[in-house]
Amino acid sequence: MRPAMQMRHDTAPPQPGDLPEELYLGSGGPSAQRGTVPRPRAQVRLHARNTVLEFADGGVVTLPVGVGDLARDVLRHDPPTPSELERGIDLVEDALAAARLPKAERGTLVTSAPALRALPGLEAPEALLPLAAVEALFQRLASRALGTPVALAELPEGREIAAVLLVLRECMHHLGFEHVGTMPS
């Protein structure tokens, strides 16, 4: 059974030269924990046209869905509509399913993407945000999509932020990451 608000995938694979600068994530805030990011861990690199997961065992998986494509082609409104969120979730879920990565206890997913430092709890370097806090942020996005006012301090506006949060949440939820942590850029 899928968690609330989920989506499907039909993105073209990236072409050489299509990948602009990476987006990197951040950490800190009210639900965050400060300190050293624990192991085992994996790193996520969020690109415009794809998402790259680099695992502690040296494995690398590239998902053919990126935050730029999601923001431009799927999440066309700010805030996204409920059907846009569903479509985006399906795209990420399909990419994860095609990668055949089993759900497992994977510990902490780390990143240095500045785009996520705009999210509450992800502002400071080397902070940890638990999955439950990421799910709460996503629920705020879903609530905003349904017309419920959500303060900017609780969740920044923008299609790119929505896309980053959606990819992060789906990767954590479906792959078994317990925390997201930031690392220096």
Tell me what you see in this structure:
Helix 2 crosses helix 4 and helix 3 packs across helix 4. The chain has 185 residues and is an alpha/beta fold. It has a seven-stranded mixed beta sheet. Helix content is 31%, strand content 17%. The protein is built from four helices and seven strands; from the N terminus they run ββββααββααβ. The N terminus is likely disordered. It has a single domain, classed as Nucleotidyltransferase, domain 5. The longest helix has 18 residues.
Features:
7-stranded mixed beta sheet, disordered N terminus, Nucleotidyltransferase, domain 5, 7 strands, alpha/beta, 17% strand, 31% helix, 185 residues
Text of the CATH class: Alpha Beta
Would you tell me the overall average pLDDT? 81
Major β-sheet profile: 7 strands, mixed
Beta-strand portion reads: 15-25%
Across the major sheet, the strand order is: 1-6-7-5-2-3-4
Helix content range of the residues, please? 25-40%
Ends: how far apart? 36 Å
Coarse morphology: globular
* Count of DSSP H/I helices: 4
* SS content category: alpha/beta
Low-confidence stretches: 1-34
Overall radius of gyration: 15 Å
Count of the domains:
1
The name of the CATH architecture is: 2-Layer Sandwich
The arrangement of helices and strands along the chain is: EEEEHHEEHHE
